[in-house]
Amino acid sequence: MDFNSSSNSSRNTPRTYKSRKQPPKKKQKTQVYLSLSSKPHHKTCSACGMSYDTLSPDDRATHHKFHARALSGVDISLPLPSSTCVAKVVLKNNVHATIHKLGSRDLPRSTRTALDAALRICNAELSAPDEGIADFFSRSQPAVYVCITPSTSSLSSSSSSSSATITGLALVERISSGLFMSCSSGRILSSSSSSSSSPPPTPVLGISRIYTAHSSRGLGIARALLDAICASAIYGLVLPRDKVAFSQPSDSGCRLAAAWAGEVMTDRELAVDRGVDVDSLVCTGKEKKIRVYIEKS
Amino acid sequence: MLEGKLEQASLFKKLVDAAKELVQDCNFDCSETGIALEAMDTSHVSLISLELNADGFSEYRCDRNITLGLNLTSLTKILRCGNNEDMLTLEAQEKPDSLIIRFENTQQDRMSEYALKLMDIDQEHLGIPETEYAATVTMPSTEFQRICRDMYAISESITIECTKAGVKFSCEGDIGNGSVTLKPSASADKPEHATKIELSEPVSLTLSTKYLLNFCKATGLSDTVTLKMADENPVLVEYPLSSGHLRFYLAPKLDD
Fold it and tell me: Which CATH architecture has domain A73-293?
């Protein structure tokens, strides 16, 4: 008796309703809002910087998701393999973190999605082109470094498996030339103004993006990422810091680069940068320059 | 100082229960004329306006205007600590940081007192424009609740069409459609069972069922409900109180 199969097949058949004629297409109606408030309903969130319409449920939901990710980082559902771990660090406040170097190969889909989400948040904050992780992997010897910390966010969407969050992200590529930039003016220093007799060492690593989630700032994640990059970017070699250059640093990026690998500007460079004579120069002797490079998109 | 005594806690409980469906945090404005609340829900689709006049309290005193910023979920938790028949007293100082809620049961000689912390809520005054309504329908509140509840299962929108012949509630959903028509009726012995229609021109409005069902949480406060409608204007759903009113405004759904 084929009792089971018959009951299954009837269950799987999509249910259809009898109708003799096609019903006329319903006119779409839109919910309108009460406009009694004099306050604008477009709001820019001061914490995550997203502008949204406070009246639209879709906008509010999108903001809620973005806000949680921008502030606390992006949750990863699968733990990253230990083979990708390049450093274990203890940050300020006794926060334990691991730094992983990820190449384009063998990335599980969920990790790729999380990386993509983290990169898009980073791009939004830096006003960078909205590239995904796949676009970045088409560059010259690319690598992605992520800092993973235990999840502390109550907003995390994870149910049970995930307890880790991407709180730091750095995109690294190989480069062959670099320039010096003045931290105070943001101007590129021309090579002719450089007074040193020997040419500056050419950088080999370019930091395309470096980003820390808002709630994890001040813990030293970015510096830990940069140290891990120097130690592991080229197999068997610890790169000196002057081999690393940054692409279009933001204000905070500039401060990070100056503190991590800034070099004091010479009087001549400073005079050229300020457009004054060397003799009339007033300086603290702490004006710094950093290495930058021009990113090929 | 504010001191307001209600003979039965159930009235205030029901009012807060009805309001908390729409707003979480809101300001209660206390003046010598009574206590008022006016707030829009977060999506700015509906508005609640509550007025509890001073003569509705058995004792009422408010020397100066006081604004009480309350979280309604927290207020509900405290109100649950008292029985419906208890005497309820609301008390607040001039610049209060908390609202004192007192329950007294004279039969059992039991008195309980709770303090609810207040919040600073940035809420602007909403000027509700005067509207001339083309149709006013007064009907039993339980009937309105039943229609909303039944139609909520079928569709997310209800269309209310009001003509001289009667008022028709209809809905159309994925599983089918339905309608309820009420004709004007007069019930001499039970006027609260009557349906009254006052009309200057026929009106048809499409409204969100979810919000209407939220308004129906106030059904226990009044035997009748009044719907005031004008084309392309927010509907006014009013539950009359013995001294004061509870009004809800809901923005309609319009054609694209």
Answer: 3-Layer(aba) Sandwich (3.40)
